From TrEMBL:
Organism per entry: Eutreptiella gymnastica
Gene3D superfamilies from the UniProt entry: Ankyrin repeat-containing domain
Positions annotated as ANK repeat: 89-121
InterPro entries: Ankyrin_rpt (IPR002110), Ankyrin_rpt-contain_sf (IPR036770)
Protein name, per record: Uncharacterized protein
Keywords of the record: ANK repeat, Repeat
Length: 136
C-alpha cells in the first residue's frame, strides 16, 4: 500500500487503467485490497467507471461477483452507486446478488435501501422470482 500511497501523493491519475479497461479501483476490489480502495477513493478515483469491452461491469458489480462485502459497503457509503438502478444487463444489484444466492450481501443491500420489489427490464422478473429460480 505504501507504493500506491506514494504514487497518489505524487498526483498519479487514479483512473488511468490497464488491460481490458480495468482501473486501479476494479483491480483493488477484485483482489480484496480494500485499504488501497480507500486510498483511491480519498484521491477521487471514479468508483462508478464501467469496464471497457464486453462486460461493462462497474466496480460495485466486481465487488459483488467477488464477494467483497467490505468494498460494496465502502461504495454504498458514498451514496453515488445507483442501488436500485438497472445495470446494462437490465437487472438491479439485488437481482445480481439474488442470482448468486449471496444472503449476507442481500442483507447489506437491503439495509442500504435496496428495493425488494424491483423488476428486471428484459425478463420482467421480480427479485423473489429470481430467488426461487436460482435455487431450482
Amino acid at each position: 500500500a505504501g507504493l500506491v500511497q506514494l504514487l497518489l501523493e505524487a498526483k498519479a491519475d487514479p483512473d488511468e487503467g490497464g488491460e481490458l479497461g480495468w482501473t486501479p479501483v476494479h483491480v483493488a476490489i477484485h483482489s480484496h485490497q480494500n485499504v488501497i480502495l480507500k486510498m483511491l477513493k480519498e484521491h477521487k478515483a471514479d468508483c462508478q467507471a464501467p469496464l471497457t469491452g464486453t462486460s461493462g461491469m462497474t466496480p460495485v458489480e466486481v465487488a459483488i461477483k467477488t464477494d467483497n462485502i467490505e468494498a460494496v459497503e465502502m461504495l454504498l457509503d458514498d451514496e453515488t452507486v445507483p442501488l436500485n438502478g438497472h445495470l446494462p444487463q437490465g437487472i438491479t444489484l439485488l437481482h445480481l446478488v439474488c442470482r448468486q444466492q449471496n444472503v449476507p450481501m442481500m442483507y447489506l443491500l437491503y439495509e442500504y435501501g435496496g428495493d425488494p420489489n424491483a423488476v428486471s427490464k428484459q425478463e420482467s422478473a421480480s427479485i423473489l422470482y429470481d430467488a426461487v429460480a436460482s435455487q431450482a
